[in-house]
Amino acid sequence: MVTNILPDRKAQLIEEVAAFVRYTQQQERRAARANRIIVVLGLVCSFGVTFLGLGGAGELAALLGAFIAMLIGLDRAFAYGERADFYRILVADGQNLLTDLRLSVDTEATFEEAKRKFLVLRKYGAEKLPRGKGMEAVRSMSQELGTGAGEG
Q1: Distance between CA 78 and CA 92 in Å, rounded?
Q2: Residue 59 burial (CB < 10 Å; 0-12/13-18/19+)?
Q3: What is the phi/psi pair of residue 16, to 5°?
Q4: What would the DSSP string read from start to end of 27-40?
Q5: CA–CA separation, 4 vs 8, rounded Å?
Q6: What b/e readout covers 87-110, taking b as 16+ CB neighbours within 10 angstroms?
């Protein structure tokens, strides 16, 4: 008797992709939160420099200016906004893959194609995380996946 193991493999891949999506969503939320904090602190400190400068508290304004420089350095070093965008695209591609797995994968060939796409997503999630160099990683991943995401 020949048994069809495709449903078991498909269920396992769905769980792996779902776990990847959950993890990536967490990373996206963390990066977006860090980016918002840096932006808000930078804006508040910028206004503080102006008001302290006008009020004659130049020494405090200079300290706030130094803090702003540190925030800019953090933003450039860790690229939280770009990371959040990168993770957001990974999440969307992962969710699209889950939809394909649930609705379209019914043969060994379509399963292997879905598995290949997941391996590409996981590889890019690990290797191509933006590190202050722009969104080149997203464009490269989208070209390899053939999704067109991140083009613009």
Answers
A1: 22
A2: exposed
A3: -65, -45
A4: HHHHHHHHHHHHHH
A5: 8
A6: bbbbbebbeebbeebeeebeeeee
Residue type, 58: G
pLDDT of residue 128: 84
Residue 22 is encoded by which pair of tokens? Answer: 């959950």
CB 146 within 8 A of CB 93: no
Structure tokens at 29: 């939320």
Q: Which helix (H) or strand (E) holds 70?
A: helix 58-78
pLDDT tens digit string along 3-52?
A: 577 889 999 999 999 999 999 999 999 999 999 999 999 999 999 998 88
Whether the Cβ atoms of residue 32 and residue 84 lie closer than 8 Å to each other: yes
Nearest to 24 by CA among 89, 110, 112: 89
Tens of pLDDT along 69-112? 888 888 888 889 999 999 999 999 999 999 999 999 999 999 99
Q: Find the angle CA(116)-CA(105)-CA(142) to the nearest 5 degrees.
A: 40
Q: What is the pTM of this model?
A: 0.75
